[in-house]
Amino acid sequence: MKRLLALVGVVMGLAAPAWAGEVSVGVLLSDGAAFDRQTVTVEGELVGDFLRRGEWVWVQLNGDSYADTPAPAGGGLTGSNAGIAVRFGTDAFDAAGFDRPGGYGIRGPIVRVSGEWRYHDEERGGESYLAVDSFEVMAREVRFEEEMRWVVFLAGLGAAALGAAILLVTRIASGDEDAGSRGAPS
Amino acid sequence: MLVRPDKRDGAIIGYFLGRICLVVAAASVLPVAWAALAREWAPFSSFTLMAGVFFLFGAAGTALRPGQSRLDWSHGMVVVALTWLIVPLIGSIPFALSGHFADPLDAMFDAMSGLTTTGLSVLQDLDHVASSLNFWRHLLHFLGGQGIVIAALSLFAGGGGLTLYYGEARDERIFPSVTSTARFIWLVSLAHLVFGVALLAIVGVVAVGLDPLRSVFHGLMVFFAGFDTGGFAPQSTSLGYYHSAWYEAAAAVLMIAGAMSFGLHFALWRRRRAQAMRNLETRTIVATFLGTLTLVIFGLATLGLYTGIPGLTRQGLFHVLSAHTGTGFATIPSVEMATWTGLAFGGVAVAMALGGMASSTAGGVKSLRIGLTLKVLRDQVRQVLLPERAVVSRRYHQGGLRTLTPDLAQAVLVVSLLYVALYLFGAGVGIAYGASLQSALFESVSAGANVGLSVGITDPTMPVLLQVTYMTQMWLGRLEFVAVFALFGFVVSLVRGK
To answer: Pick from B376, B447, B437: which is nearest to B409 by CA?
Structure first.
């Protein structure tokens, strides 16, 4: 029996993708080929849109520092975003009850996803993405607000008012000149 | 002897700059309204400031009212060169105040990149950017691609139209009047706007899975960046965000339309397809596109980056199209683009350097110049091979039969060589900062040809001098040198003239 179980284990091990462990989005972006067809675990923020296509939902998962605190919410600037595509099964995705992905005013849900990393998948015309098998919601969406900047706003209004005054004065002055030239003897 | 410009020259230049600033101030109302509707109050205040400053500059400029308001050639060139500095400078205000840029120079870099339809960006945390700010980034593409001066000419006729038109690197008049030509360009653009946004929105809903409202938003942004061959995208993963060959195909239609000259649009509009296909420029761009595509696909196959025909053709085709039209959309990250070496690198770099058609929204040397350069070379060879008394035809088709005069040939060769020098100069600065020859050349060509594809050198941490170099390349490349040289000449005359 033990031999049979061991054999099943070996067969399953051969059939299933190798497990590469937890990797960062940055590593997948810079060395994606090294993890091709391997099972990886990645943590990050779901941003942009939930692209619903029948049995799959496609989302961008960002693994950068802005997943903790977005720049407009006071997070420090640490460079460009680092994102990969992840593909969820629609049923499992809907069961998680996500509200909205990350964007302006929202730090999106933080998830820890495991699945097969498909690098330059020929079935999808060479796209690279993570086909999610399982995932865990680490944190829900967080909303943040940017306040109106009154000083900036009033400075803008002031500039516009000054511009309008200049235009008005110019128009009056040119009207006087025109009237003067009309009255002048030819 | 250099003649020092006097107050009257300053007044004429200031007056026309003012009028253009008033037009841009009117366009600035759009992001203000967008921010208000989206209840994005921090960007709303920044856009109000920007619109106010544009209006103030416009009013102050027009207040100069020179007695004789007709522009001569040099004034027009200086106005255009300064316009393309002042608009990104003031237009970068919302960027600088957004908290997405490390310093004002970074903000100016993106504004210059947007206006010149380049698409290189140092914006940080794009995926959390306000929708109104995203709109302004892409609207800059539209203003720059269609030509701010074209916009101004459409709204006000009057003295100086022709010199302003040529100053903005457009050398094709579709109608006898420049104002009518400018209005035709805007008509074509608005027709494409309606068609393009509708197409992308439908594909976005049906094939991509976007919500209808978001699909319209994405469609509008991708239209601005695609039709104006800009290259900004609403999300950090560019067009790779959509994971859809259909969406890429829809964007490709707009990229091709954007890279076509407005003369060709006019010919197709009038159903003169045969004439359009006989044009030297059309034939040249088809040939160079097929040539660079072959190089890239062969190169990618050699590298083994894609193992099947679908991956090779889709990725190769899209990126060559993006490079040749000067758009700069990508479906792969820049770190991956850096692994395209050998023939694949050569194909993309050459496609970027050559660019689209003259008088289009694309950058680069332009196909007409490439075609004429090849014709000059071919004629020279034929002249040598044929008997001494033989006459070699100097005629070519371009919207009718034209003659390739020695002056035209010289101008074409000079501008083409200037582009080569521009690419090499930027590459030299990149190499000086430690980039490899391949990476430095790729990024420099991308900046100088206003493309926007990147192998990762353009980054928020890039050295200031390299950043300024790329900005200068964008400016020079977009205006095709003449207006910028005229500005330098004006400044030298101001300092050393008598």
So the answer is: B376
